[in-house]
Design a protein that fits this description.
CATH class of the largest domain: Alpha Beta
Order of helices and strands: EEEHEHHHEEEHHHHEEHE
Shape: globular
Helix content: 25-40%
Number of helices: 9
Structural class: alpha+beta
Number of domains: 2
Largest sheet: 10 strands, mixed
Length: about 300
């Protein structure tokens, strides 16, 4: 039996870095949405637990694949879980500011939860996700959220705070940029003590209201990321200059730039124009919002 899970790209629409914590991590606040472009994970139940990777960006994964760590952690947590072989179709750029590795690990957690309905309710999914990485909890939900702390605290934006559907374009230079290097280049001061959760954003009446919020919020990692990779400034300007672009920003620590557009038609036209002008770039028109994934509830 095989279970297939998408691992959608995580998009940071805004990102504030409040400072460096005593434990060495950074205190952040970020408005996050998910794109409908994704890696794809297939879990073959009953097969020997192992990880295989294929796809256009498979060769760019360096070091231990996070999926192997996830399989080992799941087996350690509950020896009775039905596991199997994980095959990843790697379609998203690596070290791109899209949360790709975290999204892949989250997809595996969701697949295992689906495969074990009788045991899933007792598994501390959020804690397992956090042990794999700060981004994994929000990727487990794959729905628009405000995240804070080191990215481990989250509040889903639902009901009146639900984000409007967002037509967008993602542009990446097909060059990796390590998150740790960008944070080092930022040189953040000590973080103030947080006494309460941040205020939730919205509601947003339409995509123009959201675009105004994105422009005002910005991304504090934009300056150090651009210093390390000057091509980011060119990409962001190219996206912002397309007809119908309402806002252009950096996702995460980069180097992927994201443009918010008036509608899907404008986004597709912009993607075609950018891909034609810069054939070496990875360019995708997409819709931002929540991904079509099975929700995972956790008892912790």
């Amino acid at each position: 039996m095989q279970l297939v899970e998408p691992a959608p790209a995580k998009i940071n629409l805004t990102l504030r870095v409040l400072g460096r914590r005593p434990d060495g991590y950074h205190e952040i606040e970020s408005l996050v949405a998910f794109a409908d472009v994704a890696d794809r994970l297939t879990l073959s139940l009953g097969a020997e637990p192992r990880v295989t990777v294929h796809g256009p960006f498979a060769g760019e994964i360096e070091g231990e694949n996070l999926l192997a760590r996830a399989l080992a952690l799941l087996a350690e947590t509950d020896a009775g879980l039905r596991l199997g072989a994980a095959d990843l179709e790697k379609s998203l750029p690596v070290a791109a500011g899209l949360g790709g590795g975290s999204a892949d690990a989250a997809a595996l957690l969701r697949a295992v939860a689906r495969a074990n309905p009788d045991r899933a309710g007792a598994i501390p999914w959020h804690r397992l996700a956090l042990r794999l990485g700060a981004d994994v909890p929000v990727c487990l939900a794959s729905r628009p959220a405000l995240i804070w702390g080191i990215g481990d605290r989250l509040e889903l934006l639902e009901g009146p705070l639900r984000l409007p559907a967002v037509a967008a374009v993602l542009v990446n230079p097909r060059r990796p940029l390590a998150t740790a290097e960008v944070f080092r280049a930022l040189g953040a001061a000590a973080a103030p003590e947080r006494r309460s959760p941040p205020a939730l954003p919205g509601p947003f009446a339409d995509v123009r209201a959201l675009a105004r919020f994105v422009r005002a919020g910005g991304n504090d990692l934009g300056r150090p990321a651009t210093a390390l990779m000057p091509a980011i400034a060119h990409m962001q300007a190219a996206v912002a200059g397309q007809p119908g672009c309402l806002a252009a920003t950096l996702s995460g620590s980069g180097p992927t730039c994201v443009g918010i557009f008036e509608d899907g038609g404008r986004a597709r036209q912009a993607a075609d124009a950018l891909a034609s002008a810069m054939p070496g770039w990875w360019v995708r028109a997409t819709t931002l919002g929540g991904a079509a994934v099975a929700p995972v509830s956790w008892p912790d």
